[in-house]
Amino acid sequence: MSDQETELKFLRDQIDSIDQQIHALLNDRARCAQSVAEVKERYQGDREAVFYRPEREAQVLRRVMQRNDGPLADHEVARLFREIMSVCLALEKPMHVAFLGPEGTFTQQAASKHFGHSAHCIPFSTNDEVFREVESGGAHYGVVPIESSSEGVVTHTLDLFKRFNLKICGEVELRIHHHVLRAAEEGLDNITRIYLPQQTLSQCRSWLDTHFLAAERILVSSNAEAARMAIQHGTEAVAIASDLVADLYQLNIVARNIDDQSDNSTRYLIIGDQDVGESGHDKTSILVTVPDKAGALYELLQHFHQHKISLTGIETRPASPESPHSVFYIDFEGHAANQHIQNVLQELQSDTVELKLLGSYPVAVL
Amino acid sequence: MSDQETELKFLRDQIDSIDQQIHALLNDRARCAQSVAEVKERYQGDREAVFYRPEREAQVLRRVMQRNDGPLADHEVARLFREIMSVCLALEKPMHVAFLGPEGTFTQQAASKHFGHSAHCIPFSTNDEVFREVESGGAHYGVVPIESSSEGVVTHTLDLFKRFNLKICGEVELRIHHHVLRAAEEGLDNITRIYLPQQTLSQCRSWLDTHFLAAERILVSSNAEAARMAIQHGTEAVAIASDLVADLYQLNIVARNIDDQSDNSTRYLIIGDQDVGESGHDKTSILVTVPDKAGALYELLQHFHQHKISLTGIETRPASPESPHSVFYIDFEGHAANQHIQNVLQELQSDTVELKLLGSYPVAVL
User: Fold this and answer.
1) Which residues of A are less than 8 Å from B76 in CB distance?
2) Domains delineated in chain B
3) What is the ipTM of this complex?
4) Is the pLDDT of residue B153 over 50?
5) Mean pLDDT of all residues in A24-31
């Protein structure tokens, strides 16, 4: 054996011994998960036991990221634990998750990111069908984008909470940011051709309309393909794609984050019929209907300001055309089980025509 | 705390302690992997060090499956180790893998199954481009189906080995089997409507033509959608989908494995420019050109028979139209580094116009 072989053999024997220990611990963990299921079923009586606890998973993942001191990156090791929990959960009860399809979309990525690859994820053609499948009990959870342009028209997912009696059980964030990539040149001058896939076009349309209304837009099958076409087609061509693609093809990023702000398709909601407990870092979403008068929104927001509660998102939703009311979707920090939040919700109640609590759930960990 | 809460807390504390141990071991493993990379680079001199060793990964996964005694299923725990190796490898060197796109196809699934989710997988529109990308060094490996109907015409991947100087470094199997699913009825009588996606149609066309030429075929976006449509559209409707879908929608399987035998799209090849060492359970692929005369194939196969070597696959490939030769693609058990196999290859050499060794590689583990 050469010196190199001896050194490698020593290291590989070490890896094998580590793998054996990891393996034994994985099965130990699975046995504990089985015992958890057993305890839950024993005490549950007639009600169906709840095996998936989003708040508990969020806590586990946060702890993993906190205590991690490398060399593995925090998000990589958290992803491994997500898969480990997914495998253990599948042993207790195989999870069925409905998502807005077709397969291969970002929503499927979001579903796998949140539930791991042991969950059975089933595509549905519309958000409406995803909600219906979860409400009927056909799927345990659903994954929907907050807003999606994949169906031709923008479907306002939030409006579906008015029609379906479902809750938000979690959120997933996919960090998809689009940039303008260029091979030879720096800067945004002399761009005549833009290569990009359909989905990217719908996510960056306003920015492109503002900056490059005249340039030819050529639709291709993927962002990687766009990069390759831009390289082939000379100095006046650019591609719209992510950091990863820029890196792979060694292209210059000549404009960053051109995604339209109004399109929050990088955030996805987990819907279900479960009340999620406190995880220690939670968010609450509500849908409020207020009289359509000047200052209504301001009054609403004052309550949050007075209680020092941070709003994380607000969106105006149309009420029915003949209605004299406005509807707002509001996200804020905190859990509805918390007394502090309960006080605000009570105050809001007296100021609004209707207040619907959509759910409290852990802030996205990964 | 209630009794249930006490019991659950005890179990969860146990899980947390197990997680801490797994976490520490994962980082230990990553450190070992870094040392492996260091050793390789130190001894490599000017040549580029090879970080990914398919034979070594296959051995690790086989050991995992052999020693596994549950409760986790063999394939689940092997999948976790695949991800662990993927994460550790990404730390040594981020892997770039080209695959036949678009995203969301089975080929992408095959790529993730083989390289784990830490590899950067990049879609290409044709097999040709995948080969070119790997040959030029733009990607470390490529993943291509043996045969694919996704490009409209059947592209014979195998023919590309004549044009590109690349090797087979591994194989991936996806177990995708299609069945005929029916809601109310048993048996194959009175079927007038068949719901299925385009891709499934191309994989099951001969069977459907033979058995249900007259039935209406309705293309839908996914196999799950097909099942839902079949349920909605009464007793004369069926869906073509997998076990998983049958299970999810509680449909009867009235005919099993209707996939056309000629379409091996459930097997994928890993291509690269690397000679893969012995893993202990390997396969070798060759491309042989023989004079186009009666008995040529028989003579060829005799060599394998005499040496008691099992053939795992054989396929006739057209030579150029004016050529007086026949070309065969042959897969058999064993590794070309093995003396036994070398003897056969030598014998074959004398009987053939040309013999191209495409590679020896580990038999698919998962």
Assistant:
1) 87, 90, 118
2) 95-171 (3.40.190.10), 179-255 (3.40.190.10), 275-362 (3.30.70.260)
3) 0.80
4) no
5) 97
